[in-house]
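Retro notes
What went well: the complex prediction finally ran end to end.
Inputs used:
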Amino acid sequence: MRPYSLTRRLVITVLLVELGCAVLILAGTVIYERHTHFRSFDVMLRGRADSLLGAVQDAEDPGDSVMLDGTEVNLPREDIYEVRDATNKILGRSRNWPGPTDAQLVLNDGGFFRLHIQGRHYRALKTGGVRVVDPGDKGGGTRRNVTIFYGAPTDSVWTEVWNAVEFYAVTSVILLALSGVVIFWLLNRGLAPLRELAAEAEGISVKSWNFAPSEDVRRTKELAPLAVALETALGGLERSFVQQRQFVSDAAHELKTAVAVVKSSLQLLIMRQRTVPEYEAGLERCESDCERMEEIVGRMLMLATVESGEADSGAASFTTDLAICVRRAAEELATMARVKQVHVALTGEEAVMVNVEPGQLQLVCSNLILNALQHSAAGGEVKAIVLREGGAAELRIGDCGNGIEPEALPRVFDRFYRSDASRSRNTGGSGLGLAICKAIVTKFRGDIRIDSTPGEGTSVIVRLPMEPPGEHL
Amino acid sequence: MRVLLVEDEVRLAQNISSALRDGPGFAVDHAEDGESGLNLSGNLYYDLMILDLMLPKLDGLSLVKKIRGRGDRTAVLILTARSEHSSIVELLNAGADDYLCKPFDLGELIARAKALIRRGKGVADPTLRLGDLEVNSLEQTVHRSRRLVELSPTEYRILEYLMHRPRVIVSKRELLEHLYDYNWEHHSNVIEAHVSNLRKKLDAATGEPSIETLRGRGYRILVSGQENR
């Protein structure tokens, strides 16, 4: 695609509009100039016709006739004229009078008419006058009517009109060129914030999320929404990118450590000659190390699956019994509870339906009870309570373990976070259990929080939306 | 040699400890978090510290800074799962002497540990020589006047430690601390027997006395003849 410049487009648009205006002004000029010039031309024509009449008056009159010989009046040579009396007798005419036929002398414009003589355009006037013969006689002399035809060529008028138009045209072109340059410069200045924003945006990369539009950009009404939107989007992206990178880094650390365990176990085994029972014990350890690695990988994948699930899954409709899920989870973990000598107490309401996918709800219950078991000492008790409260279902799972230090509490839902690393590792924790629970609960628009008193115990409280009452029979 | 291992992954720590005890015969103390590692390193004298980078309570980098901050010159080897250059540069600049990326080779870990201990004692050559006595720390063999001397692992470790500190009186307690793990006190009765056996085997080759016993003070390696180092 060919790139096009916004500046150039705007300049061209403005210049085209200006050009249109100039053409309209020029057309108006032609009409106006023609009108005024022809008015003064007509006045001049009438003046000359009057002076011709004066000459007719003054002409000597031997035998009641006037003969104009062209010397009595001082008129331009190219002008044409003819004077007739009432009997249509020609009293005098200019030498270049072509003698138009009467048909040609038909009036068309308030006493004016046009003529075309020898390739030149003429405008002519027909006017009447009274000639007084022998004004000295008694009674004021004889009055005779005369008709005067007077014409003059119009080329000079048109030349003047065109001169005026030419002046305006040249001025317009110069103004167009000047305004083009000025607009270009102004636009360049005016669009500076836009360029600045583009340059700022260009600086953004995976390594540098720094996006700080200048005050100019923020003040620009058209750009402010874009700058704000970019800033918001980048902030969100950066957070999730950093989070993702942290996850990848943590995951790599966990996996590398798990691989290091397996590798060192094997190398230790082959470091020197060993007895068969030693080999057997070593291989068993290797196998359990591999199982740990398998578990970590499985949980990572589980977390990835839960998080990548459709965002609108909250809109889907499930009817899962929270109480049954809790009971099933407790049954699954009964063996472990017996081994650890921990009693699991289930109380609360029955048939509490929540809008959560059954498999994932089961996972949440198992993870939470497992966590509670792991943090309980022998002879302790794990309490699981299911309640309906304020239109939501609530699950509380509490243990009587050592509790969590207050400074560690905000981080317990972080991936790979272990409040007490060595113990969790010993019990096989991956640091992902609570992170998975939080991901699932959040996905189904629930809420999970943890309360802990060091030395007394920890309880996890999960609130889940009840399935819509209308759909329940 | 006594090594402090600070590693929160219990299984990995078990494997490393076994390898260091089995191979070069080091005494290994294990701490599971940074704080207890810091306490141990302050209470006892170590020839080498092996630290994991990601530790609960106090991470490896801060631990190195604290150890160096109080003037401890013990060699430090860092185990890290991160291989980014920036973090490695930061580690070495903070005072760590070497690093190994997980998953590492146990053989390499042992070799690096030995090299660091050697360097820490101002020795570059893996073969220690004193007079007509020659100790090859790689093969763990001992020659006196070019004749091979067969030693038990404990005897070898006693000799190696004494060779690292020539002409210095090494107390029985110091020797015990560097040969055994936490419960070194249980071995205090047998150390005299081990030293006595070692002396007998070494002296059998030439008849010259090799280890001097200073009653109530300790032992000193004392080998006559031309000294090469």
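What we learned: Chain A is about 50% helix and 20% strand.
What to try next: split runs per interface for comparison.
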